[in-house]
C-alpha cells in the first residue's frame, strides 16, 4: 500500500536535511533564515517517525509469513546495505581527492581505518563513537536506525498487546522512554549535546521512534480522527515553536534530549494534517520522497563541496540569503538527478535481491 502523504513527508524531511547542511557552507545569512535552516536538522527526526510508521505497516502485511523475523531482517538489510556500502567507497575516495587538492598527494584520510569501516559495514557504528558519523556523512542516523531495527519486532509486539480502550498508553510509552533516557544520562553523568555521540545514540533517539509506532496505532485505531486539520496545524506550529525556542533561546538541562522528542511529537500532527488534506501532497515532494534515501546519502557532495565553491566565488557580490537559497536549489536538483539513477541501479536491485531471497525461503517451506 502506497500512501502519497508518506512520500510527501519524506520529501519534506530530506529538504530540511539538505537545507541545514547547505547552511554549513554559507556565511552571512540573516537570523530568521539561519534559525529556520539550522532547525532543518529535525528532518532526521521526521524520517525516524515515518520509518517507524512504515515498519509497522510492513509488519501488519507480513504477519502470517513463514520465518517472518528472518524475512524482516532480510528486507531491512537489503533496503539499506547496498547503497550504504557504495557510499562508504565514494566518501573514502572523496577524502583522497580532497587531500590531493590541498597537498598534491593522493592519500586516504586516516579515519578510514579497518575498525571504522568494519563497524559501518556491520551497522554497529552507532555503538562506536570514532566511526559513528565519520565514514559516511550523516551516517549516524543509519547506524541508529539499524539498531532500532534490531529491537523493533519486540517493541511492535508490545504495542500490539495494548487494548484500544487503553490507547493512552500509546503516548505514555514514548514519554516513559524519554524519562528513562534522561535518568540514564543523569546517572552516568553525561548530558547530550547537539551533534555529539550521546545525542546521536539510540537511547536518545528511541523516544522519537516510539512516537512513530504510537502514531501508527493511533492512526490504525482512528484515535486521531477527532482532530480537525486546523487543530493539527495549530499543534504542529505550537510544538515546533517550543522546540525552536529550546534550540536557540533557552539553555535548560537535557534540552538535547527534549528537542528531538518535541519535534517528533510535532511531526505526528503534521502527519495527521497531511493524511487529511492534500495541501502538502504535491507531486514534486512525492517524487523527492520516493528517492529520499539516495538523496540523503549523496546530498553532502553538493551541500558541502559544491556549495562552498559557489559561496567562495559569489560571496563578494551576492548576499548570504540569496546564496543559501541558490545553493539549496542547486543541491536539491543535482542530488535528485543522481538519486533517480542510484535508486534504479542500486536501491531497487538490492530490494529485489532481498525479495528473491525471501521467495526462496518461502518456497522451501512449501516444498
UniProtKB/TrEMBL annotation:
Taxonomy, superkingdom: Bacteria
UniProt cross-references to InterPro entries, sorted A to Z: Acyl_transf_3_dom, Acyltransferase_3
Keyword list, A-Z: Acyltransferase, Membrane, Transferase, Transmembrane, Transmembrane helix
Positions of transmembrane segments: 38-56, 77-93, 135-156, 168-190, 196-218, 230-251, 257-273, 285-304, 316-339
Domain Acyltransferase: from-to ranges: 6-333
Keyword check for Nuclease: no
GO molecular function, one term: acyltransferase activity
The keyword Cytoplasm is annotated on this UniProt entry: no
Protein name: Acyltransferase
Amino acid at each position: 500500500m502506497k500512501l502519497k502523504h508518506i512520500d510527501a513527508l519524506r520529501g519534506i524531511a530530506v529538504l530540511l536535511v539538505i537545507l541545514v547542511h547547505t547552511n554549513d557552507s554559507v556565511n552571512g545569512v540573516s537570523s530568521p533564515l539561519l534559525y529556520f535552516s539550522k532547525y532543518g536538522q529535525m528532518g532526521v527526526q521526521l524520517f525516524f517517525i515515518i520509518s517507524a510508521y512504515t515498519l509497522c505497516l510492513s509488519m501488519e502485511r507480513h504477519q502470517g509469513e513463514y520465518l517472518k523475523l528472518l524475512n524482516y531482517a532480510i528486507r531491512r538489510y537489503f533496503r539499506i546495505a547496498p547503497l550504504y556500502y557504495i557510499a562508504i567507497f565514494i566518501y573514502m575516495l572523496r577524502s583522497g581527492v580532497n587531500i590531493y587538492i590541498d597537498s598534491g598527494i593522493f592519500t586516504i584520510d586516516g579515519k578510514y581505518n579497518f575498525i571504522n569501516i568494519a563497524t559501518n559495514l556491520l551497522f554497529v557504528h552507532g555503538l562506536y563513537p570514532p566511526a559513528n558519523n565519520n565514514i559516511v556523512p550523516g551516517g549516524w542516523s543509519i547506524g541508529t536506525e539499524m539498531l532500532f531495527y534490531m529491537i523493533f519486532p519486540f517493541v511492535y509486539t508490545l504495542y500490539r498487546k495494548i487494548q484500544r480502550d487503553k490507547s493512552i498508553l500509546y503516548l505514555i510509552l514514548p514519554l516513559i522512554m524519554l524519562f528513562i533516557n534522561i535518568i540514564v544520562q543523569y546517572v552516568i553523568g553525561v548530558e547530550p549535546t547537539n551533534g555529539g555521540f550521546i545525542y546521536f545514540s539510540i537511547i536518545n533517539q528511541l523516544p522519537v521512534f516510539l512516537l512513530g509506532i504510537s502514531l501508527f496505532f493511533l492512526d490504525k485505531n482512528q484515535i486521531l480522527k477527532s482532530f480537525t486539520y486546523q487543530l493539527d496545524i495549530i499543534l504542529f506550529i505550537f510544538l515546533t515553536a517550543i522546540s525552536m525556542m529550546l534550540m536557540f533561546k533557552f539553555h535548560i538541562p537535557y534540552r538535547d534530549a527534549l528537542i528531538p522528542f518535541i519535534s517528533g511529537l510535532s511531526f505526528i500532527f503534521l502527519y495527521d494534517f497531511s493524511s487529511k488534506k492534500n495541501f502538502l501532497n504535491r507531486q514534486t515532494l512525492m517524487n523527492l520522497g520516493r528517492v529520499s534515501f539516495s538523496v540523503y546519502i549523496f546530498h553532502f557532495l553538493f551541500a558541502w563541496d559544491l556549495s562552498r565553491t559557489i559561496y567562495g566565488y559569489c560571496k563578494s557580490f551576492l548576499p548570504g540569503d540569496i546564496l543559501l537559497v541558490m545553493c539549496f536549489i542547486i543541491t536539491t536538483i543535482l542530488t535528485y538527478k543522481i538519486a533517480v539513477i542510484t535508486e534504479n541501479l542500486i536501491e531497487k536491485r538490492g530490494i529485489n535481491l532481498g525479495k528473491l531471497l525471501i521467495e526462496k525461503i518461502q518456497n522451501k517451506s512449501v516444498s
